Amino acid sequence: MKYFNLKTENNFNSAILYAANVIKIGGVVAFPTETVYGLGADVLNEEAVKKIFAAKGRQADNPLIVHIADKNDIFKLAKNIPDWVIGLTDKYWPGPLSIVLEKQDFIPSAVTAGLESVAIRMPDNIVASELIKKSGCFIAAPSANKSGRPSPTKAQHVMADFKDEIDVVLDYDNSAIGLESTVIDGRGNYPIILRPGAVTIEMLIETCGYAESAYNKSLDIKKPLSPGMKYTHYKPKAEVLIVYGETSLMAEKINDLYKKNKNIALFSSDKLAEKTKVQKVITYQGINEAANLFYDALRLFDEQNIEIIICEEFDYKDIGEAIMNRLKKAAGEKYL
Question: I need a surface site. Which of 167, 180, 189, 310 has the fewest CB within 10 A?
Answer without folding.
Answer: 189
